Predict the 3D structure of the following.
Amino acid sequence: MKVKKDIIFWLLLILFIALSFFFGYNYYYKNYYLPSHSHITSKFSIADLKEEKLYYNASKEYVISVLGSPTNENTSTNEDTGDIIKVLTYKDCTALFSNNKLTELILQSPNYSFKGISIGDDVNKVTEIFYKESSTDEDNYAYSSEEKIIGKYIYGNFNIYNLNTVKTKEAIFYAYETSLKSENSYIIRYVYMCPPYINGYASIEDNATILTFEIENNMVSKISWRVGKAS
């Protein structure tokens, strides 16, 4: 009888370990996997911001050690969260911090790069660093909150305005190219969101990681990223 109980115990233990590994690995891979440089066609996620020299959550002191002393520094308080917001302004770069951690970066100089892309690079270089769906769907348009077409999806079909309708509990990946400004000036934007979500499913109240490339005359004119409320 004791032998039978021992066998059942070990079988249950092995099953528990296997299930823990399976679900834990899948959650880690979706949300925290740090892609190697050989996986240049993966979808954009917050992990990409952790690979850069000016990386997400870097301290203010570290950023100053990389960029030098700013030309201007402002401090304010986020009325919603109470976080202390600091903005360091440089001639061709702006860095924003929440509680001394880098959460937003704007680059306008060829002296800095993101995943090897610098200001002045050809737009084709941008579309090569991340995954791109080989869809032939001519109706795969991205829409604004006013239901106006703002461009076409590169991959995915989410937007922050349809989250409350979709109510997904999974990680969100989508990217689109828009021509809102003019024919020769547009943006390419990548968006990532991951659980745990405030209400159990993704909404505009949750944090989103957003990477934007501004394109003028088929060349990169500005690179920016931020981590903060989707809205």
Q: What stands out?
A: The longest strand covers residues 172-182. The mean pLDDT is 81. Residues 122 and 219 are 5 Å apart (CA to CA).
